[in-house]
Amino acid sequence: GENVEQHPSTLSVQEGDSAVIKCTYSDSASNYFPWYKQELGKRPQLIIDIRSNVGEKKDQRIAVTLNKTAKHFSLHITETQPEDSAVYFCAAGSGTYKYIFGTGTRLKVLA
Amino acid sequence: DAMVIQNPRYQVTQFGKPVTLSCSQTLNHNVMYWYQQKSSQAPKLLFHYYDKDFNNEADTPDNFQSRRPNTSFCFLDIRSPGLGDAAMYLCATSREGGAYGYTFGSGTRLTVV
């Protein structure tokens, strides 16, 4: 079945620096890759997603890149701020109404 | 605002005492999901409904059941909660088509005593 690996499990960056979180997936049929941000005690919230027909998508300080050949995708956060501190989950899906989540990355932005 | 609402936010139940968690949505989404999330772990899918079609994950314990009486509501029943069932339970919805992100509810944190 589908497997999604996510690295690193924890990441500390200085405020203003960039953060990169990487995920790899196993199912070549996967065609949708969302990223969720979960603050402590709160619900996961969709922050950006990408479909397999594009290689990159950007929304202000957040960008996602996809390499279908290598089956990996990455989240890039530039100019990090303390409010970016949270757990980030990647996910991969193939249109079967359910997604497999990565194991999560705890991002800490140091002021 | 259209949203996914879970009740209650916090639920304490006794070991072995049946408990029901509820989820409602105003998004008119076809698909509803129940996830279990334990501390510092990824959400784990228990089951999902596409309209009235129920889809159980192979490793979901029989202790967990679900009902979806209509488009708007979905319930999670835990027949005999054990200490290992203490977790955050997240309801989510999505549009049909499969390639859309979830909208999650705020979750119900279940404590078993």
Show the helix and strand layout.
The complex is a heterodimer of chains A (111) and B (113).
Chain A lengths: L3 E4 L2 E5 L4 E7 L6 E7 L6 E7 L4 E4 L2 E6 L4 E6 L8 E8 L5 E3 L3 E6 L1
Parallel strand pairs in A: 2-11
Antiparallel strand pairs in A: 1-3, 3-8, 4-5, 4-9, 6-7, 7-8, 9-10, 9-11
Chain B lengths: L3 E4 L2 E4 L5 E7 L5 E7 L6 E7 L2 E4 L7 E4 L5 E6 L8 E8 L8 E2 L3 E5 L1
Parallel strand pairs in B: 2-11
Antiparallel strand pairs in B: 1-3, 3-8, 4-5, 4-9, 5-6, 7-8, 9-10, 9-11
Largest sheet of chain A: 6 strands, mixed
**Radius of gyration of chain A, in angstroms, nearest whole number:** 13 Å
Low-confidence stretches of chain B: none
How many β-strand stretches of chain A? 11
Which segments of chain A are poorly predicted (pLDDT under 50) over 5 or more consecutive residues?
Answer: none
Structural notes for this entry:
- The complex is a heterodimer of chains A (111) and B (113).
- Chain A is mainly beta.
- Chain A has no helices and 11 strands.
- Chain A has strands at residues 4-7, 10-14, 19-25, 32-38, 45-51, 56-59, 62-67, 72-77, 86-93, 99-101, 105-110.
- In chain A, strands 2, 4, 5, 9, 10 and 11 form a 6-stranded mixed sheet that branches. In chain A, strands 1-3-8-7-6 form a 5-stranded antiparallel sheet, with no helix packed on it.
- The termini of chain A are far apart.
- The model of chain B has no long low-confidence stretch (mean pLDDT 92).
- Chain B is globular.
- Helices cover 0% and strands 51% of the residues of chain B.
- By secondary structure, chain B is mainly β.
- In chain B, the strands form 2 sheets. In chain B, strands 2, 4, 5, 6, 9, 10 and 11 form a 7-stranded mixed sheet that branches. Chain B has a 4-stranded antiparallel sheet with strand order 1-3-8-7, with no helix packed on it.
- Chain A binds chain B through residues 31-32, 34, 36, 42-46, 49, 51, 87, 89, 93-99, 101-104, 106, and chain B through 31, 33, 40-43, 45, 48, 50, 55, 90, 94, 96-107.
